[in-house]
Design goal:
The complex is a heterodimer of chains A (about 270) and B (about 400).
Chain A lengths: L2 H12 L3 E7 L8 H10 L5 E4 L10 H12 L4 H14 L5 E5 L1 H7 L1 H11 L3 E4 L8 H9 L3 E2 L1 E3 L5 H10 L4 E4 L12 H15 L3 E4 L5 H8 L4 E4 L1 H8 L6 H17 L6
Parallel strand pairs in A: 1-2, 1-9, 2-3, 3-4, 4-5, 6-7, 7-8, 8-9
Chain B lengths: L15 E2 L2 E5 L5 H15 L2 H15 L5 E3 L1 H7 L3 E6 L9 H14 L4 E6 L3 H13 L2 E7 H6 L1 H9 L3 E5 L6 H14 L4 E3 L10 H9 L1 H14 L5 E5 L4 H7 L9 E9 L17 E4 L1 E5 L25 H9 L2 E7 H15 L5 H13 L8 E6 L7 H7 L5
The chains are: A alpha/beta (about 270), B alpha/beta (about 400).
Chain lengths: ~270, ~400
């Protein structure tokens, strides 16, 4: 069983929901990434999505684009992201790490070499935003052959057929984009999310995490009532962006603990 | 619109030109693209749609655009004869409007009241704003803040036409960043918005659809060249940024294997300087950007690099996937000319023929002027004069040390 599947299995037995924070590797600078990863783990992260910065992040909003630009200014690259993962794995063998990014840096690295190196470094899942299932059959198959979960997005607009196409390739979990828009936009439609999740879970046979637009304990708890995991990105990047460097890890940790507490409280039922 | 039934049959059903093209977008955009693919397939085979398109090309754009024999300049060069396809005489002053009419008609057919566009030089933005006014649609144009500086007159023109121009300050602040921003808008507003992409790039079906709408250029040439010159040309020459004017004139000529097809990229300050926008000529690595796989200017880590060209319309790190395919197949050749060479051709056409060309088109003219003297006087070169140069007055004056 992959580290991601095992994590969801334990949480299911405990009756808890997964908390999946996102940070961009190298933001605000490369030396901060390991301390931030540790802070996320210590504050209740079950899985961590680590963004691989790209010069043209088409599906992201301004917050994550700024994080990418800060990281790239410091020379962050896919190669260095794998170095960070390798170091993190020496001290932590429990928390799954998912790399999230765009196709071009992976293709420039060499897709085959990347899959082998990612597995060796201790990466558990890979989400390539601009690889829809029909454009990455080989890549996803190769990931699975290397025990790395190919994670896919589904959206409110995804048809039955597209869910089936994703189901054929995906493992680990499904990242359900909770709204029409880019990362960090507003207007989360809780009712819509609640209607879609059970069908997707059944069709794809994987846990479903919900992201895009979750900004606080209350929205996290409402999403957790219907989903298997809550994914938070832009709001954490804002915390990093608005903190003095020395306080960033502490403030990110405090924010995440608040979300964790909300998810674990038993007050809200679906 | 005459769709040629060619034995050439690209792209495949999913938009691949060999290994290029495709549809590399986030899941959030996929259903919108599927809807567009279906709507375009339906419109393409509807004679009513074709009739509407052709009516507006004739009565609104002023087509067919003439071919002009540039005798004095040819004489001056002392070799092959230069023939210019006058897309600069179109309403709005460039070839861009052909495609905008096609896509706006499609938007109307799909019931989308709002159109958005990206623009580099501003020509596609102006063309989109124009057709939006013509069809009563609301219009938002994304433009890099760097390009807004370079193309102030076009920005004002778009505003006059009722469009909202949104400056894009992310990344390199040019065309590619404007495209990113337009995509983001579309993701958030797919239900009422149609994204009018201006070039033969982007995810499927855009490269195919834009090519089809622009193919009117080459289709007219197929009839006009024999009428004017007694036969088809020996070579067709067009500038290539994303490559829509080149695909438009090349496509109907693909089956005419005796006709050389030459795409001219922007060598900027020189291919060796690294400051250029010529991914095909420089043999840049193949990668994925803006929804398709193609030759792409990038660093060793796969980050897209900043490009340079004197002409904003060619200042783009990628190139339409069909051009990538045509390069590999050998059917088209790709070359590059520098800023300085393009400027020289700009001035030469002004002086010898009384035509002020766009700086983009000046790249094609410069290459024609380069090879004409090496060819005999009975050879015919057909150059796509894709736009007029009024928008470039400021840039050219500045290069000559003149301030308005």
């Amino acid at each position: 069983m992959s580290r991601i599947a095992a994590t969801f299995e334990i949480l299911r037995k405990q009756g808890r929901k997964a908390l999946i924070p996102f940070i961009t590797a190298g933001d605000p600078d490369p030396d901060m990434t390991l301390p931030l990863l540790r802070a996320l783990v210590d504050s209740g992260a079950d899985i961590i999505e680590l963004g691989v910065p790209f010069s043209d992040p088409m599906a992201d909003g301004p917050t994550i684009q700024r994080a990418s630009e800060r990281a790239l200014r410091h020379g962050m690259s896919l190669r260095r992201v794998l170095d960070i993962v390798r170091t993190f794995r020496r001290e932590n063998q429990a928390t799954p790490l998912v790399l999230m990014g765009y196709a071009n840096p992976i293709e420039a690295y060499g897709s085959t070499e990347f899959v082998a190196d990612a597995q060796a470094a201790g990466v558990d899942g890979v989400l390539v935003v601009d690889y829809p299932p029909e454009e990455c059959v080989e890549f996803a198959t190769d990931l699975r052959r290397h025990q790395v979960d190919p994670i896919f997005l589904l959206a409110p607009t995804s048809t039955e057929q597209r869910c089936a196409d994703v189901a054929a390739l995906a493992s680990g979990y499904i990242y359900y984009v909770s709204l029409k828009g880019v990362t960090g936009s507003g207007n989360l439609d809780f009712a819509e999310v609640g209607r879609r999740i059970p069908g997707i879970r059944e069709k794809v046979g994987l846990p479903v995490g919900v992201g895009f637009g979750i900004r606080d304990a209350q929205s996290a708890r409402r999403i957790a009532a219907v989903a298997d995991a809550v994914i938070i990105g832009s709001r954490i990047i804002e915390e990093i962006e608005n903190s003095p460097r020395a306080e960033a890890t502490a403030r990110v940790g405090a924010f995440l603990r608040e979300i964790r507490a909300a998810l674990d409280s038993k007050e809200v039922k679906s | 619109m005459q769709m040629h039934e060619l034995s050439y049959n690209q792209p495949d059903a999913r938009g691949h030109f060999g290994r290029y093209g495709g549809s590399f977008v986030a899941e959030t955009l996929k259903p919108a693209l599927d809807e567009l693919i279906a709507a375009y397939a339906e419109a393409r085979s509807d004679p009513g749609f074709r009739a509407e398109f052709e009516y507006d090309l004739k009565h609104y754009v002023g087509r067919p655009s003439p071919i002009y024999h540039a005798k004095r300049w040819s004489e001056q060069l002392g070799g092959a004869q230069l023939y210019l396809k006058r897309e600069d005489l179109n309403h709005t002053g460039a070839h861009k409007v052909n495609n905008c009419i096609g896509q706006a008609l499609l938007a109307r057919r799909m019931g989308k009241p709002r159109v958005i566009a990206e623009t580099g030089a501003g020509q596609h933005g102006v063309a989109t704003a124009t057709v939006a006014a013509r069809y009563g649609m609301s219009c938002v144009v994304y433009m890099g803040s760097e390009d807004i500086q370079r193309q102030a007159a076009n920005v004002y023109r778009m505003k006059l036409l009722g469009a909202t121009v949104v400056p894009v300050t992310s990344g390199s602040k040019t065309l590619k960043d404007a495209l990113n921003e337009a995509m983001r808008d579309w993701v958030g507003n797919v239900s009422d918005t149609f994204y009018i992409i201006g070039t033969v790039a982007g995810p499927h079906p855009y490269p195919m659809m834009v090519r089809d709408f622009q193919a009117v250029i080459g289709t007219e040439c197929l009839t006009q060249m024999p009428e004017l010159a007694g036969r088809q040309p020996d070579a067709v020459i067009a500038c290539v940024g994303g490559g829509s004017n080149a695909m438009g004139i090349f496509y109907p000529y693909l089956q005419q294997t005796g006709v050389r097809l030459i795409g001219v990229e922007a060598a900027g300050l020189g291919l060796d300087s690294g400051k250029h926008a010529a991914p095909l000529t420089a043999n840049s690595p193949v990668g994925v950007l803006h929804g398709n796989r193609t030759y792409l200017m990038q660093d060793e880590n796969g980050q897209i690099t900043e490009t340079h060209s004197i002409s904003a319309g060619l200042d783009y790190p990628g190139v339409g996937p069909e051009h990538a395919w045509l390069k590999d197949s050998g059917r088209a050749e790709y070359v590059a000319v520098t800023d300085a060479e393009a400027l020289q051709a700009f001035h030469d056409l002004c002086r010898h023929e009384g035509i002020i060309p766009a700086l983009e088109s000046s790249h094609a003219l410069a290459y024609a002027a380069k090879i004409a003297p090496t060819l005999s006087r009975d050879k015919l070169l057909l150059i796509n004069l894709s736009g007029r140069g009024d928008k470039d007055m400021h840039t050219v004056a500045e290069k000559s040390g003149i301030q308005f």
